Amino acid sequence: MFKCKTVWNKLAPLARASSTLCLQNARKSVLRHGRRLEMVQRAQMSSGPPGGGGENAVYFVLVGAACLGGGIYAYRTVSQDSERYNERMRQIASRQSQESKPAKALEPVAEEPTLIEPAVEESPVTEDIVESPEAVAEPIVKSSIPEPAVEIAVTEPVVEASVAESVIESPLMEPVVEASVQEPIIEATATETVAEAPEVIQSEEPIAPVVESEPVPVVSTEHVPEASSVSESAPETSPAAAPAAEPIDPTAPHLDVLEHAPYLLIGGGTASFAAARSIRARDPGARVLIITEESDLPYMRPPLSKELWFSDDPKVTESLRFKQWNGKERSIYFQPPSFYVSPADLAKVENGGVAVLTDRKVVHMDVRGNKVKLSDGSEISYEKCLIATGGVPRNLQVIDRAGEEVIKRTTLFRKIEDFRSLEKISREVKSITIIGGGFLGSELACALGRRSADPGLEVMQLFPEKGNMGKVLPEYLSNWTTEKVRKEGVNVITDAVVKNVTYKNDKLEIKLKDGRLVKTDHIVAAVGLEPSVELAKSAGLEVDSDFGGYRVNAELQARSNIWVAGDAACFYDIKLGRRRVEHHDHAVVSGRLAGENMTGANKPYWHQSMFWSDLGPDVGYEAIGIVDSSLPTVGVFAKATAKDTPKAATEQSGTGIRSESETEAVAGVLEVGTVTPAPPVQQKEDYGKGIIFYLRDKVVVGIVLWNVFNRMPIARKIIKDGEAHTDLNEVAKLFNIHED
To answer: Which family does it belong to (predicted)?
Structure first.
């Protein structure tokens, strides 16, 4: 019998040719007679030449043969389907009759997997599953092949967790048969012999334990339907039972990382903490996640170069606690660990909270996808993000090129670890040289200078300016300050430009450009801060070419849902223009403002932050605005009294706060004793206390309060007003510096 497809392949070309010729003749007839085509064409409908006798008969034969072949194919297909259906029905009837017979007792060898063909499945499946005896009344054994038994050798038993829990130490009874089983059973893949465990097949009816004195093989399955019901009835105290799920490793890096944080703060410094408090103040249910590459919780940095060095506690490097001028003791940490929420629980806490993820660094930022990638490979999505990465200490290029021996004997002071390391070094070496005459360098010089009284420690400070803080203070006040630092026991070397540094004979040799040579055991480089802008490339954020840092607007916004605060922010000051500030109080103020704007405040940066420094026990100053020695200055001074010291000022106020920030409580230098004032160094004057105004186009843009405390709101208002003043002596009277 030929196949329909073969016939069609042979006849199709002839049929197509005949049809084509028919259509062509029809078109010609219509064009000649100008009338519609009749339903039955009388044109020649054969492939032969017109006028032939049997052209229509050939066409009818081809079409008829094709129809006949198709009918034969359809008949054979329906017949075969009917036979398969009848065979299937006979198999089902045979299986039901076998299940109605009693099953034999189980043998102590593994049975061959039972072949079962459910009515709704074509592929047979097998089952040898052990059901727990606790939740059932009678054991059930289902088998369509009762006799054959095959011993199976398994090198490594494979046990499914949900099955293994139900096969250990189960009491055995005589099996009974259950006929009504509807769900298909999955084929077993491996077996394991377990002592005193029954072989029980899961069914719809309750199952009772099976009694048997001999061990019975247990077959584990790759997948078991209704597995939850098996595991729930398993004994919980079975020592050999496999757990239902793998235990969670609490040390795994991805377990304490949220997949999503509504408020994500990158950086664990002062700005981030201030922003977190501001966010929580405006949104009490906010969930805030702080990510920091340090191992410590958020802390304040100023005490690292000030108060901690004057502590009498021998374990200050461990406790990190210090006494303020008012005698109160506190920690450098803003809040204790109990204040924070675990990162793993942040999403579960009912009223939200602040979580800190330590020892992690954000290495990539996807601003379009609103997610960041961490150094451990995990990713966190966010709704609003704050970048407060701060900065890293700069180093001199001559030190970077000097080699490993010089680098490992150089400290870049910034973190808690740096304080601990330098404190230890100061007790072990004979000489320390501080390179830099700014705030940090001068503060560390005074702090270490106090220890120079101890036998064998020499402290030196060198910088290219003519005096300490020569870039900030006017020259006359800088020179006077340098003498005060020398009184603290520091060997100050001015006009010193480092040419190269070498290591010879267990000493570091610092050669200056003018030929001078300084030998020392250790170097502290305090030459400024480089803002951390590593995320600018991946995030597509703009970096300011003049000041450095991320370029943001007056609302500290870099993108619609990204803000920047602290040392890394180059912001637009609506009074003083574009700026970047590297001081503690600026981190507090900018962080607080960024947090408010992240919750919808949309406030510009108008609050001028302040900064302060203390040099010795009786000299301290506070400053605000643009304080640059290259600007014209006007100083108004008065004679200092006993209350014009940082210690007296904080005792009078009852607080240790030197900044008007909400998150700080830091006082000046912790030295109870007094030091004789330094001799006058210019015009025989002693600059006891005074106000220094910094001018730009006759407008005050910066103010330094020299040993004048608790007057910062007045200075802030003067800068905010932005008015030109003809007589600054009258402006100085607002500070009441002439009071006794």
So the answer is: Belongs to the FAD-dependent oxidoreductase family.
